[in-house]
Amino acid sequence: TQTGGTAEPKEFKPEFKDYQAVYNEIAKLLQEHDEYDDGSYGPVLLRLAWHASGTYDKESGTGGSNGATMRFAPESAHGANAGLINARNFLEPVKAKFPWISYSDLWILGGVCSIQEMLGPKVPYRPGRADRDMSSCTPDGRLPDASQGARHVRDIFYRMGFNDQEIVALAGAHALGRCHTQNSGFDGPWTFSPTVLTNDYYKLLLGSKWQWRKWDGPKQYEDKETKSLMMLPADIAFIEDKEFKKTVEKYAADNDLFFKDFSAVIVKLFELGVPFTDKAETYVFKNLDE
Ligand code: ZEM
Fold first, then answer.
1. 234 in ligand 1 pocket by Cβ < 6 Å?
2. 149 C-beta closer than 6 A to ligand 1
C-alpha cells in the first residue's frame, strides 16, 4: 500500500535462500576456476576462514572472524597470511554480486562452501558478522608457528578456547591443500588427494615413516616411501605427544567420527567472538549437486 512520498526504502533482510545463492555462486566459481594449484581454490578459501577466525583471544575477546580485518595492513602483511590475497581476490566478484553480505560473513561462508564442496561434512552456518576497520587488526603472532611443537600448539589453541581433542580434529584440515615456498617457505601437500576432505591426514601421520627432508628450506618432514608428501614439525607433534596421538588414532580409524567432530569444531572456530543476536538462525546449505 502507498504510505506517502517520503517512505524509507525497505531494508533488505537476507534469508536462507539469499545465503544459499551466495553459497551457489562460490561453489560455481570453485568449479570454473580449476586452474589454481591442485585444481581448486577450496583449500586456500578454507585457510582464509581459519586465519580470520584463529586470531581470537578469549581473555580480551579480541580477534576472530567478526571484522574481516585481514583486509587491512598490518594484518594482511603478517607472515602467516602470505598467499591469502588469492582467496580474498577470489571472493571479490561474489561480494560485488551480493553487496549486502559483510566480508566477515562472506569469508566464513567461503570456508563452509569449500568444506562441503570438497566432499566434507555439512557445516552449519550462522550469519551475523559485521566488518570493522583497521583499528581492530590483531597483533602479529596469534596464529600457530609451523616450526614449533606440542607446547606451542597448545598455547595457541588454548588461547582460543579449544581442548586437545578439538585441536587434533581441526588439524585434520591438513588433508587439504599444500605448502607453498613463496608463502610459508615450506613445500608440498600432506595427502595424495589435497582437494577432497578425508581422514587421510591421520592415517598418513600414523602409517608412513617420516624423515627430515634434506633441502635448503625450513625443517620439514617427508614420507620415506614416496618423498612426495610432507609434514610440518607442528604436525608431527600430534604423534609425538601421547595425549594428541590417542585422538589421531581415533580419527585414523573412523572417518565418520572425524567428520562429525570436525564439523562441530570448525563451527566453534568460525563463531569465536561473534556477537550473534538471539534471532540468528542456523543454515545448512545444499551442495551444488544436491
Ligand atoms: Zn594450516 N598451514 N596450520 N590449518 N592450512 C598451511 C596450509 C593450510 C599450520 C600451518 O603452519 C600451515 C590449521 C592449523 C595449522 C589449512 C587449514 C588449517 C601452511 C602452508 C602452513 C605453514 C601455507 C602456504 O605455504 O601456503 C599450523 C602450524 C597449524 C596448527 C598446528 C587449521 C586449524 C586449519 C583449518 C581448520 C589449509 C586448508 C591449508 C592449505 C592452504 C593452501 O593454500 O593450499
1. yes
2. no
